[in-house]
Amino acid sequence: MGKLIARKTKKVLGFQEGKPTVYKLQQVIFPQVSYADLVEEISNSCGVNANQTLSVVTALLNRLVHYMQIGHGVRLGSFGSFIPKIRVKCVKTEEEATAETIQQKVIRFVPGKDFKTMLANMSVETN
């Protein structure tokens, strides 16, 4: 079972009269796993050489990018889906609604069954 680690932090709310103190949990962030390490682990677990694994993973990512560039979402089985989205500014008239009103282009990740199960079973340890 997965486990997140969080530490208790103290914060003084200086913007409020009397400056009350509040406490919250803050997740301890660990270093990210590198692409090379991930490819090596996949290679070892599948019994395939690292170059072949790298080629397959790179091709998968290239296809993922290709389909999202042309507007498609991509579902990776029970892993989840990647969906290209835009965030736009609201305007008062139809004529003002142009490509210039796009404020941000983002990729939304929607967790699939595997991630939902993992999150449901994940514990949090405080220190």
Short description:
With 127 residues, this protein is α+β, with helices and mostly antiparallel strands. The chain has helices at 35-46, 50-69, 113-121, and strands spanning 3-12, 21-27, 74-75, 80-88, 102-111, 123-126. The strands form 2 sheets. It has a 3-stranded mixed beta sheet. Strands 3-4-5 form a 3-stranded antiparallel beta sheet.
| Biggest pleated-sheet summary | 3 strands, mixed
Poorly predicted sequence stretches spanning 5 or more consecutive residues: none
Total number of helices:
3
- Rg from alpha-carbon coordinates: 22 Å
- Fraction in beta strands: 25-35%
Number of strands: 6
Largest sheet, spatial ordering of strands = 2-1-6
What is the string of helix and strand elements? Answer: EEHHEEEHE
Shape: flat
Helix content: 25-40%
Instruction: Write down the overall mean pLDDT.
Output: 92
Structural class: alpha+beta
Head-to-tail CA distance between termini: 19 Å
Task: Explain this structure.
With 127 residues, the chain is an alpha+beta fold. The protein has a domain at 79-117. The protein has helices at 35-46, 50-69, 113-121; strands at residues 3-12, 21-27, 74-75, 80-88, 102-111, 123-126. A 3-stranded mixed sheet has the order 2-1-6. Strands 3-4-5 form a 3-stranded antiparallel sheet. Strand 1 (3-12) and strand 2 (21-27) form a beta hairpin. Helix 1 (35-46) packs across helix 2. The radius of gyration is 22 Å and the shape is flat.
